[in-house]
Amino acid sequence: MHAFIENFFNWAIMAQYGPTLLVGFFRTVWLALLVIVTGVGVGMLLALIRSIGIRPLNVLIKQSVDVIRALPPLVLIILLYFGLPYVGLRLGGFVVAWFSLSLVLVAFAEEIFWAGICAISKGQLEAARATGLTFATTMKSVVLPQAVRIAIPPLTSRLIAITKNTALASAIAVPELLGTAITVQSDVANTTPLMMAAIGYLLMIYPLVLMSKWVESRSQWAK
Amino acid sequence: MKKTLWISAIAGCLGAPLALAQESVVAASDVGYAPYSMVSNDGSLEGIDIDIAKGMSKYSGIDIKVIDQPWSTTFAGLNAGKFDIVLSAAAVTPERAGNMLFLEGYGDATDAVLVKKSAGEITKASDLQGMTLAINKGSSSGNWIREHSQQYDLTLAEYDKASDAVQAVITGQADGYMMYQSAAGWIALQNPLLAVSDFTTGGGRVYAYSVNNDNPELRNRLDAALECMKDDGELKAIFTRWTGITPKADSVSVNSQPGYGQPGFEGYDDTPHEHDCSAS
Question: Do B137 and A191 count as a contact with CB atoms less than 8 A apart?
């Protein structure tokens, strides 16, 4: 047991490398926040555009989303980072990571919001339009509040997954939390930094779960 | 039967590891770290570390089975007892020496910078001014870059894989890749676009294999075998064969160290011993 603690929860190492890992922690939080804001925002926008029902546009959205969802995020990251320089565009690791992960989240968020919108019966839309509401107002005041409530549980799972996917950025030299932990682990020949990273992810993701619960309970009125 | 029991009881009291009783141990190697450990055309392993493992087997009489273990999980695996030997060119540092038992060094941890040929001559540190330097994540080369990042305006970029770091230099995402001179030489031999800097750092540091802290007997036997390989010039020949560079006369690859382990670091045992180099 002593050896286990020595190797996984070594206080001396935690104290010494805490500040180093904290830098990686904040970089991961920042990256995750940017990805979530971009991904959820653009994803919802695409779902709304799709609900207007312009056929060629819908086909384009559907096809792109299906392709992006099928690709492993790491491949996207490597392709953009090492591939774009060949066509004269050299983007930094952080920008590439943000863009690739946002793209992935956009694809998933669009499908989740679209599923939410589809779940609202057509009768509601027709009834709202019959009372004289415009399409935009109908979406904003009638359909979306209910669609979002349905979308929150699956969306939360995606947000958690994408937050953990930020670790992929270490492949292109972005010193995020997990990558930093692995570096320190190699320096000190001890597994404690990995446990510190695990605690870091817990601190990041648990509030996300609590927040989604809160938003869910707030929107109970829409029942 | 009774006699066998006695022997195993004594062995148990002495704390002799089971691995030694069977004369077979498992070594973890980061396969793909050229030219130390690679997969050959026929699927078997080859490289500097693989050749040395064979030599150590010959002199110690211990059968060494090499497995592939990514570098990033090597220390965790060693501590958990998943294997007995870290068969990788790990630079000996005070931090690491506290957590594992190093054999004596087998190579000089001299770092050089792999750059594009078009980058021009790099003969001194100031030639690196303003560069983004790649390293393989967790490599000790990062320390020099961190210490000099202000002085020469350097940016450190750590890649998960050595192959990605090379890609970064080729695509211009990084200006150079700091690594062991021997490994850099090997990559430059394979890729005519790349060159190795004349500028080097880390003189005097060495890299070595290691075993778990509670296994000094295995360490000592492998250490003695390594000394034999230095004495008969076998180690020198292996380096020359794989890197095209012959170790200098003062290199740790040529001179065996007294005692067991790397002098000056935690875990070093200065017990004098004869070199018994009758290959078994």
Answer: no
